[in-house]
């Protein structure tokens, strides 16, 4: 008797089968769809960890070469050929394929296609893209199929011309979301807002809009889903940019140099109470009349991946130009001050400083930056992406080079991608991935 | 651990120690045991060391961080020859030109609707008589430009390829050649050489790449330094059309300079003792037409001497180039005449 724990094959097999049965039972009787412990929707099957059999062990022993996604390895990085003014698309692809949670989803092959013709499914193409980009192949990939599919499914983007990366991102997310039908755990058919596809789970946040009637102080609240936050930047002729004196510095650890706008400044402006003025009176339900009001935007629900978009391209009646004002953005971001729950302290004009508590729920890490060089009419997009904890790379179409954190933080910034540091347990599908981003 | 009702105050230190120790051990076990079992199981079943990387692989996939190289150790900008297959028409297309191709292929481009309309119009006219075809010729005359060469090519292929009428209509358009919209020019995918007259071909080859694509059977309209084709290919094309004496215009040093050196051209012309009028000025955009009218006969099939041919091809370069130089802003500078000419003349 060796007194050691033993693992008997037959008993394990029986255990596995019984477990599977139990889960199936659970799935079919469960009314709370979000508590389903299965990753394959509707089938009640659990994805077990792969455990090698004896012949597999032997084979692996004979073939010792391994390809791993590990730091200082090129696996996971690959250039993209420019198909003719498609640098905007290449940057978004780089950002999406380096989104940790999305990477885990696709590399574990979780997409189940239910499109009538899979060759037209953008999610399938996305899956294929991940395979290509993580293959370790040093020669750049030609994303012609992706372009073709996007043009078919998002007609407004079709055409050989320079385009906006942000517009492409939103359109791509929209098509992916529409094609994700097969992965839904339980999409309520009549309510599109309750879609549970991977895109919505990752990118959709809830933007709360509170309109306060100035007469009766009644508040009317609506929550809209959003995939990104578009921020005004100083220097545009239409926006009014108040720099309140005595504001706190380094709310988010940004190097606060007087005169330099930070991302936090932009967010603060975005979430400030705004008086709507006498020309925009709202009908108040409480007073039953048209009254002046103030409106305030805050985040009700934070997405797993937050995308910030600086409105640098001005298309006003006066002029069309690009605003190149430098805006400093941090590596780590705490969204707590901009939540709906922090509103009371905002009313007094104070910005609630995040405490050093263990509450990491609202903390984000930067993982991708898309930059634009040039003018409104003609320019070039490049991106910085984060690979592993502290390695950054510059992606310029087919050429990937190593970059320093300083390069990234000094860049102008057009689209910023932040990933939640710790994932919450509200969604079973998300939890199952066991992802700890950085 | 027993759940006893105990009063902690009555215990001595050692007992408290023991209790604290037990609690501590419990907590440690709770947190580690799961992990320990996992590792134990992995070792016992033999898959614990499976995903260790071997040193060979580590070297293969190591990130390179040197100036001028990407992370794979490759030099920048070597990917011009990448190709892909169009999902719509199944043709093999150069990757960097895929987007403009797809736009036309799917019928989304600016010219696509015009091209489509013409095709419809042409298919309606196919059944008509010869005279009607002539009418078509005239109707379409005003729209001749390289940007719409596709529709023109289609139109021509409907007719008798040996029709003398065709080359005549082309001759009239020679002047327009140099006036054609540079942007349309650069967007066209190629020219079908069958439709071109010999003098047109010659002038074309002096300013464009001209290599015939295997897939489309059309000539490349990009610059003489177009990266898609090699100099070898360009020489071969000129060889094929203009005979073994054809010279590939030298462009290496002069491409970035947009200004055309007028004085060289003028000096050359005077030295060559042009038969024709001396009022040829470099800024005359109709100069190529002029040269033709002067009986240079670049279009004739006369068996000229080798020397003459070379001389003429370069002069037509000068002629056309000067025309181009005045009207276009973005055309690369045409090559300065090579010393070889001077040798021949003297």
From TrEMBL, chain A:
According to UniProt, the reaction catalysed is:
Thiol-dependent hydrolysis of ester, thioester, amide, peptide and isopeptide bonds formed by the C-terminal Gly of ubiquitin (a 76-residue protein attached to proteins as an intracellular targeting signal)
Q: Which family does it belong to?
A: Belongs to the peptidase C19 family.
Point out the gene that encodes the protein: Usp27x
One GO BP annotation is: protein stabilization
> Signal sequence span per UniProt?
none
Which EC class is this protein assigned? hydrolase
Question: One of this protein's Pfam families, by short name?
Answer: UCH
Per its UniProt record, what CDD domains does this chain match? Peptidase_C19D (cd02660)
Where do the coiled-coil regions begin and end?
A: none
Report the function annotation for this chain: Deubiquitinating enzyme that removes conjugated ubiquitin from specific proteins to regulate different cellular processes.
Gene3D superfamilies xrefs: Cysteine proteinases
What positions does the domain USP occupy?
A: 78-421
The protein's organism comes out as Jaculus jaculus
One MF term in the entry's GO annotations: K48-linked deubiquitinase activity
Name-wise, this protein is: Ubiquitin carboxyl-terminal hydrolase
- Entry EC no(s): 3.4.19.12
User: Do you know which PROSITE patterns this protein is assigned to?
Assistant: USP_1 (PS00972), USP_2 (PS00973), USP_3 (PS50235)
- What are the alphabetically sorted keywords of the record? Hydrolase, Protease, Thiol protease, Ubl conjugation pathway
TrEMBL record, chain B:
Subcellular localization: Nucleus
Mention any Pfam family matching this sequence. Answer: Sgf11
The species this protein belongs to is Jaculus jaculus
Its GO biological process annotations read: chromatin organization; regulation of transcription by RNA polymerase II
Q: Which InterPro entries match?
A: SAGA_su_Sgf11, SCA7_dom, SGF11
ZnF SGF11-type residues are 84-105
The task this protein performs is described as: Component of the transcription regulatory histone acetylation (HAT) complex SAGA, a multiprotein complex that activates transcription by remodeling chromatin and mediating histone acetylation and deubiquitination. Within the SAGA complex, participates in a subcomplex that specifically deubiquitinates both histones H2A and H2B. The SAGA complex is recruited to specific gene promoters by activators such as MYC, where it is required for transcription. Required for nuclear receptor-mediated transactivation. Within the complex, it is required to recruit USP22 and ENY2 into the SAGA complex.
Residue ranges with Acidic residues bias? 132-141
Gene expressing this chain: Atxn7l3
> Which ranges are annotated Low complexity under compositional bias?
116-125, 275-288
Instruction: Summarize the subunit comment.
Output: Component of some SAGA transcription coactivator-HAT complexes, at least composed of ATXN7, ATXN7L3, ENY2, GCN5L2, SUPT3H, TAF10, TRRAP and USP22. Within the SAGA complex, ENY2, ATXN7, ATXN7L3, and USP22 form an additional subcomplex of SAGA called the DUB module (deubiquitination module). Interacts directly with ENY2 and USP22.
Region annotation Disordered: where it falls in the sequence: 116-184, 274-346
The Swiss-Prot or TrEMBL note on domains reads: The long N-terminal helix forms part of the 'assembly lobe' of the SAGA deubiquitination module. The C-terminal SGF11-type zinc-finger domain together with the C-terminal catalytic domain of USP22 forms the 'catalytic lobe' of the SAGA deubiquitination module.
Q: Belongs to which family?
A: Belongs to the SGF11 family.
Any one GO cellular component localisation term in the record? SAGA complex
**Gene Ontology MF terms:** transcription coactivator activity; zinc ion binding
Chief location of this protein within or outside the cell:
nucleus
User: SCA7 domain spans which residues?
Assistant: 196-263
Task: Print the keywords alphabetically.
Answer: Activator, Chromatin regulator, Metal-binding, Nucleus, Transcription, Transcription regulation, Zinc, Zinc-finger
This protein's name: Ataxin-7-like protein 3
Q: Which Gene3D superfamilies match?
A: 6.10.140.1270, Classic Zinc Finger
């Amino acid at each position: 008797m060796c007194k050691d724990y033993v693992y008997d094959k037959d008993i394990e097999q029986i255990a596995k089968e019984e477990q599977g049965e139990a889960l199936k039972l659970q799935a079919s009787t469960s009314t709370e769809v979000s508590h389903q412990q299965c990753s394959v929707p509707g089938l009640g099957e659990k994805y077990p960890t792969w455990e090698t059999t004896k012949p597999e062990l032997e084979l692996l022993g004979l073939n010792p070469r391994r390809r791993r996604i590990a730091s200082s390895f090129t696996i996971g990085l690959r250039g993209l050929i420019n198909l003719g003014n498609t640098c905007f698309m290449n940057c978004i692809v780089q950002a999406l394929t380096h989104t940790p949670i999305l990477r885990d989803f696709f590399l574990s092959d979780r997409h189940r296609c239910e499109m009538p013709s899979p060759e037209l499914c953008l999610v399938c193409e996305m899956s294929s893209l991940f395979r290509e980009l993580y293959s370790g192949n040093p020669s750049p990939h030609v994303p012609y199929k992706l372009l073709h599919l996007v043009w078919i499914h998002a007609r407004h983007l079709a055409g050989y011309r320079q385009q906006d990366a942000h517009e492409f991102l939103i359109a791509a997310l929209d098509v992916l979301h529409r094609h994700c039908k097969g992965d839904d755990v339980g999409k309520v058919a009549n309510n599109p807002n309750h879609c549970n596809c991977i895109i919505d789970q990752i990118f959709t946040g809830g933007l709360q809009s509170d309109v306060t009637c100035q007469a009766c102080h009644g508040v009317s609240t609506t929550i809209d889903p959003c995939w990104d936050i578009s921020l005004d930047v100083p220097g545009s002729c239409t926006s009014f940019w108040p720099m309140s004196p005595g504001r706190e510095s380094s709310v988010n650890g940004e190097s606060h140099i007087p005169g330099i706008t930070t991302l936090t400044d932009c967010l603060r402006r975005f979430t400030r109470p705004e008086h709507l003025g006498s020309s925009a009176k709202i009908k108040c339900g409480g007073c039953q009349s048209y009254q002046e009001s103030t409106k305030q935007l805050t985040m009700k629900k934070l997405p797993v991946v937050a995308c910030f978009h600086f409105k640098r391209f001005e298309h006003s009646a006066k002029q069309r130009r690009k605003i190149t004002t430098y805006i400093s953005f941090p590596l780590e971001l705490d969204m707590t001050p901009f939540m709906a729950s922090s509103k009371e302290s905002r009313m007094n004009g104070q910005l609630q400083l995040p405490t050093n508590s263990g509450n990491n729920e609202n903390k984000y890490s930067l993982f991708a930056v898309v930059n634009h060089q040039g003018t409104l009419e003609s320019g070039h997009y490049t991106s910085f992406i984060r690979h592993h904890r502290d390695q950054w790379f510059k992606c310029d179409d087919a050429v990937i080079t190593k970059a320093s954190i300083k390069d990234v933080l000094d860049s102008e910034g057009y689209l910023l991608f932040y990933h939640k540091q710790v994932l919450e347990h509200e969604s079973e599908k998300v939890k199952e991935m066991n992802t700890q981003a950085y | 651990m027993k759940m006893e009702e105990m009063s902690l105050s009555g215990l001595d230190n050692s007992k408290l120690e023991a209790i604290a120790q037990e609690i501590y051990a419990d907590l440690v076990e709770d947190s580690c045991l799961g992990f320990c079992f996992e590792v134990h199981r992995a070792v016992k079943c033999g898959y614990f060391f499976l995903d260790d990387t071997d040193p060979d692989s580590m070297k293969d996939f190591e990130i390179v961080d040197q100036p001028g190289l990407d992370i794979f150790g490759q030099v920048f900008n070597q990917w011009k020859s990448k190709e892909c297959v169009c999902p719509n028409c199944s043709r093999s297309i150069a990757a960097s030109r895929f987007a403009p191709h797809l736009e036309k292929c799917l019928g989304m481009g600016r010219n696509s609707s015009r091209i489509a309309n013409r095709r419809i119009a042409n298919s309606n006219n196919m059944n008509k008589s010869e005279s009607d075809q002539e009418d078509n010729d005239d109707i379409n005359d005003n729209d001749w430009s390289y940007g719409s060469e596709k529709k023109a090519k289609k139109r021509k292929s409907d007719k008798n390829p040996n029709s003398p009428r065709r080359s005549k209509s082309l001759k009239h358009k020679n002047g327009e050649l140099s006036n054609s919209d540079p942007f349309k020019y650069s967007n066209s995918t190629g020219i079908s050489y069958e439709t071109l007259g010999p003098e047109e071909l010659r002038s074309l080859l002096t300013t464009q790449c001209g290599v015939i694509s295997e897939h489309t059977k059309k000539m490349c309209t990009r610059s003489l330094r177009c990266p898609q084709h090699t100099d070898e290919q360009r020489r071969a094309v000129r060889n094929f059309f203009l005979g073994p004496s054809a010279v590939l215009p030298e462009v290496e040093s002069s491409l970035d300079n947009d200004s055309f050196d007028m004085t060289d051209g003028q000096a050359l012309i005077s030295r060559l003792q042009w038969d024709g009028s001396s009022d040829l000025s470099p800024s005359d955009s109709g100069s190529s037409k002029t040269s033709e009218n002067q009986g240079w006969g670049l279009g004739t099939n006369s068996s000229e001497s080798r020397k003459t041919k070379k001389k003429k091809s370069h002069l037509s370069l000068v002629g056309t180039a000067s025309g181009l130089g005045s009207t276009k802003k973005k055309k690369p500078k045409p090559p300065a005449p090579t010393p070889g000419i001077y040798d021949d003349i003297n």
